[in-house]
Amino acid sequence: MNDTEFHSITASMLARIESTVDQWLQDDVVDIDTHRTGGLLELGFPNGSKIVINTQPPLHEMWLAARQGGFHYKYAKGAWRDTRDGREFFEALSACASEQAGRPLRFEPAVSA
Question: Which of 37, 52, 68, 73 has its CA 20 to 30 A from that of 88?
Answer without folding.
Answer: 37
